[in-house]
Amino acid sequence: MKIVLYYAPHTCALAPYITLTEAGADFTVETVNLRVKQQFTPAYLKVNPKHKVPALAVDGRILTENVAIHPWVARQFPEAKLLPSDPWDELQALALHSWVSGGIHPYLARVNNPAKVCDAPGSEAGIVKNASDAIYENFAVADEMLSDRDYFFGDFTTPDAHFFWSVRRATELGLDISPFTHVSAHFARMRARPSVRKLEAFEAEVIANLAKAS
């Protein structure tokens, strides 16, 4: 089986990189250079017409969206126990993926590029503030969920990787996560995992190579 992850630095494509690594999967990575808008090239649009990452190619078949990619990895590599074994908890894990994708990610995008949602003069500061407030509200919910456990379901599962990305992206955008002590502890715990250390080393190499090529 040939697995290819289409990835770009800083994006939520780092979450399936972590999950695939946790699974012990044999996969390769195709870097998509968003700075030169490679996601809009005809070649990449054949991979993902939505011009987004991540995309996962499995023997030539394409799967997109973290909400779908992570369950595929978990089911393909059941020995890694990447989703809870209880059916109800498995659905709750998928709900967490949906929450990160639909409830947190869009606000991170607004903080990163407010003009993309409103280009009215003087609107930028208000968009960033409102989006930041919404992110903090979500992190407060997660903080409560993590108050008595190391990971969302006790042990590492796929939503931990996805949520980790959202927290890391928030810190990259200058948001302060220190008030959320359990979220901060989860973030530190994730960064200590070998899969995340591998991801961050790989990402640093990719960023350096892209800089040389520009």
Cα(first) to Cα(last) distance is: 34 Å
Based on CA atoms alone, the radius of gyration comes out at 17 Å
Which structural class matches the secondary elements? alpha+beta
- Helix segment count? 8
**CATH fold name of the largest domain:** Glutathione S-transferase Yfyf (Class Pi), Chain A, domain 2
Question: What is the arithmetic mean of pLDDT?
Answer: 97
- Work out the number of β strands: 4
Domain count: 2
What is the element string, with H for helices and E for strands?
EHEHEEHHHHHH
Strand order of the largest sheet: 2-1-3-4
How would you describe this structure in keywords?
alpha+beta; Glutathione S-transferase Yfyf (Class Pi), Chain A, domain 2; 2 domains; 4-stranded mixed sheet; 8 helices; 8% strand
Overview of the structural elements:
There is one protein chain. With 214 residues, the protein is of the alpha+beta class. The chain folds into two domains: 78 residues, Glutaredoxin; 108 residues, Glutathione S-transferase Yfyf (Class Pi), Chain A, domain 2, CATH 1.20.1050. It is built from eight helices and four strands; from the N terminus they run βαβαββαααααα. A four-stranded mixed beta sheet has the order 2-1-3-4, with helices on one face. Helix 1 links the parallel strand 1 and strand 2. Helix 1 packs parallel to helix 3 and helix 1 runs antiparallel to helix 6. The chain is globular, with a radius of gyration of 17 Å.
Write the layout of secondary structure elements.
Blueprint: E1 3-7, H1 14-23, E2 27-31, H2 42-47, E3 55-58, E4 61-64, H3 66-76, H4 87-112, H5 124-145, H6 158-172, H7 181-191, H8 194-213
Parallel strand pairs: 1-2
Antiparallel strand pairs: 1-3, 3-4
